[in-house]
């Protein structure tokens, strides 16, 4: 019989937010930005550290990594200070990925401030799309912008990872980052942003992941695997989770809940139990890497439950 993992878990990708107190423009009443999950009005409500603990601890989670949540882009430091406060009060999170606009004039100062905090392990700046075209006929992202890459280069002096959230179709640009900056670990968010499960999409996604996985300075989060209009199920996600582990090796794959966002499709406990079922056919050593070891190595979060 398969062995279900019963050891400790690190949630390597979650949010908390207090919408009455803090500025998140995309979560304001009436705000509607393009989102891969469609209508997201249901998550426009507070999700505090205590709410995360109530979800996560019964599911076996013992540590976590907060992911920046598109706080006011003019105040990256303010978000970090709020998260530092939450950590002091609740123990959540054990580490964080902070907001940092890599092409901003003050990027050096922002990164230095984050580095001095002691809680920041990485930063995220979604590269988006620009109007510049290249040989494939697609638009280049900020990953090809010289100013952005100059900011990216600054991550190494602080020992920061970079959190890359971009559709898998843009990963050829990420290869150039991996090659030019071998001292910076790039962490692919949300499984490479896989929007559907068509055979054509899966074939392209596999090839794109394989190209980046050839480089040692990359890891991936098994997170954000919901599909608009469908519930999160083991059947929907078994193949892609196991393929990520096969492509990268368990030592470079980690679990992330993406809560409360993925709560649009499932409960926290059902999500974790679904992942447990998916990886149960693998060795317990591999399962421990997936649920705990990889995130512990990359983020070293302070555990919030002994």
UniProtKB/TrEMBL annotation:
It comes from the Bacteria. Residues 10-299 form the Amidohydrolase-related domain. Residues 122-143 are annotated as: Disordered. InterPro entries: Amidohydro-rel, Metal_Hydrolase, Metallo-dep_Lactonases. Pfam families: Amidohydro_2. PANTHER family: AMIDOHYDROLASE, BLL3371 PROTEIN. This is Thioesterase. It comes from Brachybacterium ginsengisoli.
